[in-house]
Amino acid sequence: MRPMKLALNPKVAGQALVIGLCLLLVTPPVSVLAAEEPEATKQTVALSPKVGKKLMEIQPMVEAKQFAEAARQLEAMKSMKNLTPYEIAQIYNLTAYNYYLQENYRGAIGAYEKVLEQDIPLALRQSSLKTAAQLYFTIEDYDKALVTVQKLIRIIDEPSGDVLMLLGQAYFQAGRYREALTPIKQGIQKYIQQGKRPKENWLLLLRVAYYELQDYNGMVDALLDLLRYYPKDSYLQTLAGAYSELGDTKKQLVITQVLYESGIMTGSQHAINLANLYLMHEIPYNAAEVLETAMNNNEVDPTERNLRLLSQAWYQAREDAKAIPPLERAARLSDDGELYVRLAQSQLNLDRWSDVVDSIAKAMNKGGVKRADQAYIMLGMAHLNMKRLSDAETAFIRAKAADDRSRKAADQWLAFVANERRRKETMEQVMPQGEMRVQDEMLRNIPSDSEDEGGTEE
Q: Which CATH number is correct for 31-157, 3.30.230.10, 1.25.40.10, 1.10.1060.10, 3.40.50.11600?
């Protein structure tokens, strides 16, 4: 049985969730009026009254979506004399925000690059690098996103979970899945240590990274965390698939059984998959019940393959009578006679001799029987039980000729037929009258019980 497949294409799902996560992380730039700490520069970070007043006039225009007028006035500000690096950075910061709200992400990135060219405080540099990295993700320039995040990591003493996740995403999108694992796990662990619930998208990204590396043990761990923090049926299904990849079909069976019986996992493929798992673990009766119920409810089509599987389940459960009807239907649909031979075997187990003869005849008429010798052995046994010695003998002779592997068994049955024929001939033989009279005379000369016990001669 081919284990059931995973519910989603992990690579596509991974790309979608990364883009979604990036969009969640992208936020408007820090307000141009926010105070900055002069951690990275001795340059003054104060805005002159003139510059501060002008930026305060332009910011409401941006938020009111008067983008063209805001852009015109910001461009005019860039030509002002004696601007400090910090003032230039704040002009480009608001310019970036103006582009961002217009979804002109490349323009916003260009503006942030101008911000980063200036001698600015550490906090502003960190926030600008982080936002620029997020924008590179948005335009799917993952190489530049990785470079930008690496620059950000280098100037942070203790990166937050969000920043570590950005690095993990950048490695992931660059196809460097193994390198992505460490920052992703560190980001998740930071949240847990802070008593926070790790974000669902982070755990999903970790799961996909493990999948890309075909590390199913790691994938199971990530899925167990997903189920711990975000219990969903879809994660249980994926977990069952991961256990299948690991060859741990017992755990796969337990999860699949729970999902199917609770009505969460429905449909033809899930019923067939569960039945195969039952058969794999030698629980054929449950397999048969699942399939038969699903067929009766029109959830599983009665195709030759599915009927054959149902019959096999009943047969392994030693329910030969129940195995016969689906096998008869499957045999009629089959292109060769193999299923009629299997049908004959079940009928033989139930002593349905005439049905065995009929099924073997149909098998031979359809052709394609792999072991005709075995079919003829069964045919001979059926004839023998119906006291058709000549037909049985013919069948055993055919078995012997069909395949050397049945030569010994055929010879034994032929010897048995010969003995039966001799015994029958003996039983049917009529003894001569003379002999019978002699026999009668001999019987008269045998003393009776009374004579032996108390009689005396006269």
A: 1.25.40.10
The reply to whether 31-157 shares the fold of 1-18+158-246 is yes
Taking CA atoms, 273 is separated from 254, 267, 306, 383, in Å, by: 12, 10, 11, 40
Which contacts qualify for 431-435: CB closer than 8 Å, 24 or more apart?
Answer: none
Average pLDDT over the chain, rounded to whole?
83
What is the distance between the alpha carbons of residues 236 and 255, in angstroms, rounded to a whole number? 7
Q: How far, CA to CA in Å, does 15 sit from each of 20, 21, 38, 142, 163?
A: 9, 10, 38, 11, 18
How does pLDDT run across 89-121, given as a tens digit for each residue? 999 999 999 999 999 999 999 999 999 999 999
Residue 74: name the closest of 89, 104, 95 by CA: 95
For the stretch 304-357, pLDDT in tens is 999 999 999 998 998 988 999 998 999 999 988 999 999 999 899 899 999 999
Q: Residue 219: which residues within 8 A CB-CB, separation 6 or more?
A: 207, 210, 211, 242
Q: 67-84: per-residue pLDDT in tens?
A: 999 999 999 999 999 899
What is the C-alpha to C-alpha distance for residues 273 and 60, in angstroms, rounded to an integer?
A: 60
Q: How many whole angstroms separate alpha carbon 390 and alpha carbon 420?
A: 11
- In this prediction, residue 157 carries a pLDDT of 87
Residues 6+ apart with CB under 8 A from 315: 284, 323, 327, 346
Backbone dihedral region for residue 159 (phi beyond 0: left; psi -120 to 50: alpha; all else: beta): beta
Residue 73, classified by CB atoms within 10 Å of its CB into exposed (0-12), middle (13-18) or buried (19+), is middle
Give the DSSP H or E segment for 105. Answer: helix 105-117
Amino acid at 371: R
Q: Do residues 160 and 152 lie in contact, with contact meaning Cβ atoms separated by under 8 Å? A: no
Strands (E), 284-393: none
- Written out in words, the top-level CATH class of the domain with range 1-18+158-246 is mainly alpha
| CATH fold group of domain 334-427 | 1.25.40
Instruction: Please tell me the distance from the alpha carbon of residue 216 to that of residue 438, in angstroms, as a whole number.
Output: 92
Domain boundaries, the chain: 1-18+158-246, 31-157, 334-427
Query: pTM score > 0.85 for this model?
Result: no
